[in-house]
Write a structure and sequence with these properties.
The protein is globular. A six-stranded mixed beta sheet has the order 6-5-4-7-8-9, sandwiched between helices. A five-stranded antiparallel beta sheet has the order 1-3-14-11-12, with helices on one face. A hairpin with a 7-residue loop joins β15 and β16. The chain is 39% helix and 27% strand. Pfam families: DnaJ, VWA.
Length: 484
């Protein structure tokens, strides 16, 4: 099951599909190195067992019970309406989903992790920015476990391996290879991303593999190549987090690179932000119960997913697709997601709608057969007669915060389209709501940006990112995590 990358309860069709995908990838006509040939033989042997019902049954009978058990994760749903009204118009429908890991921490079988830092060392990183990155990287090394691996790649218009994959126990506490990094050249993210992923691919895939990309600028013409590479890495279980330093970097690209694996991008305005990120990432890697969570589902005709957002941890919008990367869940921790559906008018014959039916696939590193899944089946009745009801407070709160975040998305588009009057009006509306919630600092930034847009007809680079990531941070209200 591990070799083919399928769960214990995989159907014959799923086993066949996984086999053909791997066969194409590792066939000797495609890859000729010795490791690929060994992998190809393993794939053939695994498929011969699992594709034969008698051999599979005999194999399953020998497996330990822990492999046959499902994930120790409970799932709870809250709905904007318990009953969907049958009306002649389209309507929005919201679902708040909580995933709660009930497993106790057990590190004895947890594999080590491999963290690869991919650092922008272009000319614009000279001075305080590079000093901040060096200091934070060296501080991070001191917090790793001895068995963990670290690698470092630096890039400008070319990429270079500064530290190849090395056990922390074999590294000096103050590694001069990081301290001696020099800046110079342009910014070509693909070069660094590709070399960083190569370092992670060179190690046993049972390791938990994380790439952290730090940059302060726009890349030159390789955006699509970066996105394709991030998608490939995500399919292999490699997570990527993007950190933008200063105000010149491409937040749209870093969002897309990061969300491919269910991670998120982050705006780094100073050393404290970088330190906090590394502490959080180290905590996640050291306490991972399941990784690569991916929601795959279908809905009834006339039910359309329009928006998906992870509220906790690491608030971020998620790609809307038939396979949504959700991220990583830690031992005894929770994850919260908000989904917006558009429901089209329903005929009188329809008395129930399937909102989500499918599964959440995941990999549990501590399990010998790591692949597993959590089945979900969410449906709601449809009726002509619907009583007035109040949605759960946590859902109302999340919807209100999401509205503010999406408003800034709308404002950015209006500015891009030259609709300055509309954008200015909506910025004042956003500031009013922020003030009513007591967020004076962000409201002040919004009002200052409204003045700037009226004069220059574009966002300032600093204001643009402060508003985007400021409203995103609102999606984890102080009380929400305590209520979950």
């Amino acid at each position: 099951y591990f070799i083919l990358g399928v769960p214990y309860d995989a159907t014959p069709e799923e086993i066949r599909g996984a086999y053909f995908d791997l066969d194409r990838k590792y066939h000797p006509d495609v890859k000729k190195d010795a490791n690929a040939q060994r992998k190809f033989i393993e794939i053939q042997e695994a498929y011969e067992v699992l594709s034969n019902p008698q051999r599979r049954a005999a194999y399953d009978a020998k497996l330990p019970e822990e492999i046959k058990r499902g994930p120790e994760i409970s799932v709870n749903f809250k709905f904007s309406r318990m009953v969907i009204p049958r009306i002649a118009e389209q309507q929005l429908y919201y679902v708040l989903c909580d995933l709660i890991c009930t497993a106790d921490f057990d590190f004895k079988d947890l594999p080590p992790f491999h963290l690869c830092l991919v650092l922008d060392r272009s000319t614009s990183m000279h001075g305080a920015r590079m000093d901040m990155v060096k200091s934070s990287a060296l501080q991070l090394l001191r917090q790793f476990r001895p068995q963990d691996l670290i690698s470092v790649v630096a890039f400008s218009d070319r990429a270079e391996v500064i530290i190849p994959p090395t056990r922390v126990s074999e590294m000096p506490k103050d590694d001069g290879r990081i301290s001696m990094l020099q800046t110079g050249g342009g910014t070509e993210i693909f070069q660094g991303l590709q070399l960083g992923i190569e370092q992670l691919r060179s190690i046993d895939p049972r390791y938990m593999r994380q790439l952290v990309l730090l940059t302060d600028g726009h890349t030159y013409g390789d955006d699509e190549a970066c996105i394709l590479l991030a998608d490939e890495a995500a399919a292999e279980g490699i997570a990527i987090s993007g950190l933008g330093i200063g105000h010149e970097w491409n937040d749209v690209l870093l969002d897309r690179i990061s969300t491919a694996s269910g991670s998120s991008s982050m705006f780094v305005s100073g050393p404290k932000d970088l330190t906090r990120f590394f502490e959080q990432k180290l905590s996640v890697l050291s306490n991972t119960y399941a990784r690569g969570l991916t929601l795959e589902f279908e809905s009834s005709p006339g039910v359309e997913l329009r928006y998906a957002f992870r509220l906790h941890p690491e608030t971020t919008p998620l790609p809307v697709s038939n396979a949504i990367p959700l991220g990583t869940i830690m031992f005894r921790k929770s994850m919260t997601f908000l989904f917006e559906f558009l429901i089209h008018p329903q005929t009188a014959e329809v008395d129930k709608l399937t909102i989500m039916k499918g599964s959440i696939r995941m990999e549990i590193p501590a399990k010998k057969s790591a692949r597993t899944r959590l089945v979900i089946d969410v449906s709601r009745p449809v009726s002509d007669q619907v009583d007035r009801e109040t949605p759960p407070p946590t859902l109302v709160e999340a919807m209100a915060k999401l509205t503010l975040y999406r408003l800034q998305e709308r404002i950015r588009k209006e500015v891009s389209d030259g609709q300055i009057d509309k954008a200015t009006k909506h910025l004042h509306y956003l500031a009013t709501h922020l003030l009513s919630q007591g967020d004076r600092e962000l409201a002040h930034t919004v009002l200052m940006e409204a003045e700037h847009i009226q004069q220059s007809r574009r966002f300032s680079k600093e204001g643009d990112k402060r508003i985007k990531y400021g409203t995103r941070a609102l999606l984890l209200p102080s009380g929400l995590e305590q209520k979950l």
